[in-house]
Write a structure and sequence with these properties.
single chain; 7 helices
């Protein structure tokens, strides 16, 4: 995940939040590259709509070559106007809080790279006033059932952004992200298969058959040597598996 703030004479004040597919260094690189390119577009005076559409087209090409998709969450605060505009490509909901009222801001576009070439997120504009808080979160912090988060924000009466962020971190369980991250990977795999004009269900079926065939051959080879799977160490099992791969099974 990558977050960046931007102040531009033509674009106002912007917040850019991007989250790459999955987790780890590869996801971070995708997110960082997306934020860097979008920042350059906005600093050059390009409006958010064409900038985002260009990024989506580039992400589609990268997905075809095996790269992952990326969520984009762009917020723009208009200078001289008390309005906030949100643009979301597959991003998690954002929340506007003022006193005890919380507004949930949800986009409908797919992540960049999965959205159609002519598709772009519909801008969402909200009036803001002194004392309004904007809370951006990444995927996995809150899913469809985010009432707990809205209740937390509505009841929070602090004044420190760091304190609010810490309270949110403590409220989120470490393992709540796992299902969504796995879903990201499966979704990306289906997208790549479709791009290559392959049936993802058939590809999965073929992979399962290959695994069963290779595992059966490995087991038979071990039994033929007078041993059982349970007797082998992890290193021995891996060596036997690799031997079956080299044999083309």
């Amino acid at each position: 995940m990558t977050l960046h703030t931007l102040s531009s004479g033509s674009q106002g004040n912007c917040l850019l939040l991007s989250d790459g597919m999955g987790s780890g260094e590869a996801a971070h690189r995708e997110a960082a590259m997306t934020v860097r390119l979008l920042r350059q577009f906005l600093q050059a005076g390009i409006r958010p709509e064409p900038a985002l559409q260009t990024l989506n087209a580039a992400a589609m090409l990268r997905c075809q070559s095996g790269a992952g998709f990326t969520t984009i969450d762009l917020v723009r605060l208009e200078k001289g106007a008390a309005t906030l505009t949100l643009y979301k490509y597959g991003a998690a909901p954002s929340y506007l809080k003022r006193r005890g009222t919380v507004v949930r801001c949800q986009g409908s576009s797919l992540p960049a790279g999965l959205e159609s070439a002519d598709g772009q997120p519909s801008p969402q504009t909200y009036p803001v006033a002194p004392g309004t808080w904007l809370v951006q979160v990444s995927d996995g912090v809150a899913g469809d059932d985010d009432q707990w988060l809205q209740d937390l924000l509505a009841g929070w009466d602090g004044t420190s952004p760091r304190a609010l962020a810490q309270e949110l971190r403590e409220a989120v369980q470490d393992d709540t992200n796992i299902d969504e991250e796995l879903g990201d990977l499966l979704f990306a795999a289906v997208r790549v298969a479709s791009t290559l004009d392959k049936d993802p269900e058939q590809a999965l079926h073929s992979a399962c058959e290959k695994f069963i065939k290779r595992f059966t051959a490995m087991e038979q080879s071990i039994l033929a040597s007078g041993r059982t799977l349970e007797e082998l160490s992890r290193e021995e099992l891996l060596a036997s598996w690799d031997a079956q791969k080299r044999n083309g099974r």
